[in-house]
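INSTRUCTION: Work out how this chain folds

Fields: amino acid sequence; protein backbone structure tokens

Chain under study, with its fold:
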Amino acid sequence: MVRLYTDDLSIAYDDRLIVKELSVEIPDQKITTIIGPNGCGKSTLLKAITRIISHQSGSVVLDGKNVAKENTKQLAKKMAILPQTPESASGLTVGELVSYGRFPYQTGFGRLSKKDFEVIEWALQVTGTSEFKYSPVDALSGGQRQRVWIAMALAQETEIIFLDEPTTYLDMAHQLEVLELLQKLNQDEKRTIVMVLHDLNQAARFADYIIALKEGEIVKAGSCHEVITQEVLQDVFNINAEIGVDPRTNKPMCITYNLLKGD
């Protein structure tokens, strides 16, 4: 049984249609990456699935229920999203930021319960950010901040986590650190991870399932071996790519490429 899918989903900004009657299934307890050129609808799709923005037609279905009709707090217990450029209020400590993940579970005056504090400590520990608990978020490096935001998403105790370009602005080491953390969460905690990535080799290395978008439509969806091919990359990115095999993972990798030019 597929827990999360879209059915003929169309999303528009003003009069411009960004995503066109898109139907896609998200594999449960797997890592899914969404790739495609700038402006093709990747981030828009994530926002619509998580109800940050509304859609024009079609539906998003989670556990047999239409997401658009789901109670906000109940939905926040099932799905968490880390936006592309998250911003926190100036002066917040790491512990305070992570505690915001417990909002869907708070009642009355919003005081944190013993269970809330236990989950916060667990999220800090899993992401390796416990030592920063009392430090201002603004004082951390980019990689440390990204791990803290992931800790906040984990504190929501959702089974599905969406991330919009989680490696943006990070150096190579910190990119790998974040992606390995997400992989560990998937393997150890059975979290379903859905993320937008620009780096094709990172997408191939870490994903179980890849969705390639172009102009709001799916060009190809499947395993990395099915999607990271010369034909698909030519169609999606207008490039002539040389595809090899990663000697460490045996997964396909883009070795080099040229931009295809029209006649």
About this structure: The CA atoms of residues 167 and 174 lie 8 Å apart. The mean pLDDT is 93.
